[in-house]
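This is your field. Pick holes in the following sequence-structure pair:
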Amino acid sequence: TIRAVGFKTPHAHFCLQEELVEWLVAEREIRVLHLTRQNLLRMLVSLKIAEATDAWVEDWDQSRPSRLRPANMARAVRNPLWAVRMIRNVLSPPEAAWKASRPRFVISPDECREFFAKTRADTAHYDELFSKHPLLHLTYEELSDDASPTLDRVQTFLDLKPRSLSA
């Protein structure tokens, strides 16, 4: 009954698997979903927060208060500052402790330009690598803003009959 199988890998991790990349590029029947972010500044801020806190993945389990459950993940991905405020409100530390524990960092205009240029170059590189494959471009923003039609489009691209999905 399984009609499609896949995996997700960030650009930065993908290049570490040369043999896998070669095999995937050669197998032109493999369908590629290229998921990117439109808002590169939010992507950079998210990266800086992860680097400053060493928190790369959040455990969104059901034992957490309702505002930390998976239903709010899309909003947190779309707006990392909303997630920070939400977590602060749920955990309710004293205001002084919260202010002292917030990660502090500066992003220079040059750092932004370099990050944006590298991200765009990576995107173009993988589009070129898989240009002979069936390729569908998606953005996190599309998935966050209105997942249903986007997921229908993905299922159609994968030659599946669209059905209601939830994340």
In short: The chain is about 55% helix and 5% strand. The CA atoms of residues 53 and 103 lie 7 Å apart.
